[in-house]
């Protein structure tokens, strides 16, 4: 959805009351565009637009919108509408929104499902968030290895349409054990008299439901996959993972990481009530307040030094600020590497040595530069030397904490991105003030 579409829709909304032509415009939009539109509207206008959407599209739009906005839409629907919307979804899609639906609605929807769909839903809900099993879908095409390609093509022509993102067929035996894959590209160019086993690929990427979604995303990127089979411990085909699910997962994880780095606990509706937004933000702000108070007390220890040499008050924010930026650079690199699975075991020490080497080089260059500037402004050689040494020491502290904080959180099984910028800034602020003012007290006062 582009800005022009959003502006046109806003123009058609007057005091929360939509004009008749808005309904026709919404009918022409893709479900994902309607979802983006709903996320960009305040609550009153959002519900006005939502009430114009045809009932048979409610389900697919609920799947597309963010979790926070979905809650506001579900709250505005009565149980009958929710049941009708949920019944239009496939098992894997229903599993995506099930945690947000009232329990009574889920029970009624489950009762309306066929035995096969009910089992698929149970399977999808049994896997934790972040596992391949939670992302896979069950809509795929299977063939046997002893049939001809001509029989396969006749079978495909009898279908109304192929499942989305079908680039290959899955070859199974009578027990649904995966034998290989048949890419559509091979099917199209091969002699139709040949059997599937003569054309299929026996060595292909396959996933297991318990695999980490991050590892699956890496495989899709590495091998340029569009789809991949998902098999159980007995190698029986249970579903498939498609590139659209992987892209959605990567986007969601990226958004979560950005929010976590800022200390936000969860995704937030842009137009959420003030109290809801407060609840989402208060925890890390409270921690930031504590760390800021600690930093102020560090400064208070050296009040006499600052009083005797006023230049210290002007220079100390520079040391702390550059240390914070450097530490955040290190932390960002570490968190990204952890997300990509690039750091293992004993490599942490090598990584720490490397980051400290970078800190030493930056400290030598920028510390010398800032020391020279301090001398130029205040005509004090010792002050310049203290500035240079404090800069180097604080950058070393920033590098150490930039590696240490994500390492500790990862070892404890926590998300290393959560609040990392808040923690590293707290360390470099308090540490930077202590180092700079402590050195100044020793050598200048």
CATH architecture of the largest domain: Orthogonal Bundle
Low-pLDDT parts are none
The class by helix and strand makeup works out as mainly alpha
Order of helices and strands: HEEHHHHHHHHHHEHEEHHHEEHHHHHHH
Main β sheet profile = 3 strands, mixed
CATH class of the largest domain: Mainly Alpha
CATH topology heading of the largest domain = Tetracycline Repressor, domain 2
CATH superfamily of the largest domain: SLC41 divalent cation transporters, integral membrane domain
How much helix is in the residues? 55-70%
Beta-strand residue percentage: 5-15%
For the residues shown, what is the average pLDDT? Answer: 88
Radius of gyration, whole Å? 29 Å
For the record, give the distance between the C-alpha atoms at the N and C termini, rounded to a whole number: 62 Å
How are the strands of the largest sheet arranged? 3-4-5
Q: Could you explain the architecture of this structure?
A:
With 445 residues, the protein is mainly α. The chain has helices at residues 3-11, 20-27, 31-39, 43-50, 58-64, 67-75, 79-86, 91-97, 103-112, 115-126, 132-135, 149-157, 184-189, 196-199, 213-223, 243-261, 274-301, 303-308, 311-339, 347-378, 381-411, 420-443; strands spanning 13-14, 17-18, 142-143, 168-172, 178-183, 227-231, 237-242. The protein has three domains: 3-128, Alpha Horseshoe (MgtE N-terminal fold); 142-261, CBS-domain, CATH 3.10.580; 274-443, SLC41 divalent cation transporters, integral membrane domain (Tetracycline Repressor, domain 2). The protein is 65% helix and 6% strand. Helix 19 packs parallel to helix 21 (381-411) and helix 20 packs antiparallel against helix 21. The longest helix has 32 residues, at 347-378. It is globular and about 90 Å long. The termini are far apart. 33% of the residues are buried.
């Amino acid at each position: 959805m582009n800005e022009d579409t959003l502006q046109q829709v806003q123009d058609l909304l007057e005091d929360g009351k939509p004009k008749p032509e808005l309904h026709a415009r919404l009918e022409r939009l893709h479900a994902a565009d309607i979802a983006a539109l709903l996320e960009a509207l305040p609550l009153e206008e959002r519900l006005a637009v939502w009430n114009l959407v045809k009932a048979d599209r409610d389900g697919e739009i609920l799947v597309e919108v963010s979790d926070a906005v979905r809650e506001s839409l579900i709250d505005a629907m009565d149980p009958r509408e929710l049941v009708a919307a949920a019944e239009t979804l496939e098992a894997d899609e229903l599993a995506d929104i099930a945690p947000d639906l009232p329990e009574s609605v889920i029970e009624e929807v489950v009762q309306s499902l066929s035995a096969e769909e009910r089992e698929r839903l149970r399977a999808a809900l049994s896997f934790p968030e972040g596992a391949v099993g939670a992302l896979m879908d069950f809509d795929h095409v299977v063939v046997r290895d002893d049939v001809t390609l001509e029989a396969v093509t006749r079978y495909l022509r009898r279908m109304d349409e192929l499942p989305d993102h079908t680039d290959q067929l899955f070859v199974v035996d009578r027990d649904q054990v995966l034998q290989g894959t048949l890419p559509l590209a091979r099917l199209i160019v091969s002699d139709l008299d040949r059997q599937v086993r003569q054309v299929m690929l026996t060595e292909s990427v396959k996933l297991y439901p318990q695999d980490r979604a991050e590892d699956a995303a890496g495989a899709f990127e590495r091998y340029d996959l569009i789809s991949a089979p998902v098999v159980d411990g007995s190698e029986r085909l249970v579903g498939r993972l498609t590139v659209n699910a992987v892209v959605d997962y990567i986007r969601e994880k990226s958004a979560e990481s950005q929010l976590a780095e800022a200390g936000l606990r969860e995704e937030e509706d842009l137009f959420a009530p003030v109290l809801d937004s407060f609840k989402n933000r208060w925890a890390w702000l409270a921690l930031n307040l504590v760390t800021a108070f600690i930093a102020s007390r560090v400064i208070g220890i050296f009040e006499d030094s600052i009083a005797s040499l006023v230049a210290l008050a002007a220079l100390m924010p520079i040391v702390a600020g550059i240390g914070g930026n450097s530490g955040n650079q290190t932390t960002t690199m570490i968190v990204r590497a952890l997300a990509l699975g690039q750091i293992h075991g004993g490599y942490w020490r090598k990584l720490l040595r490397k980051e400290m080497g970078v800190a030493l080089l930056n400290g030598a260059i920028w510390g010398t530069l800032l020391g020279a500037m301090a001398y130029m402004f205040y005509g004090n050689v010792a002050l310049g030397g203290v500035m240079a040494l404090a800069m180097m020491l604080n950058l070393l502290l920033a590098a150490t904490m930039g590696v240490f904080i994500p390492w500790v959180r990862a070892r404890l099984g926590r998300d290393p991105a959560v609040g990392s910028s808040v923690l590293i800034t707290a360390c470099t602020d308090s540490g930077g003030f202590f180092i700079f003012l402590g050195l100044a007290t020793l050598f200048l006062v």
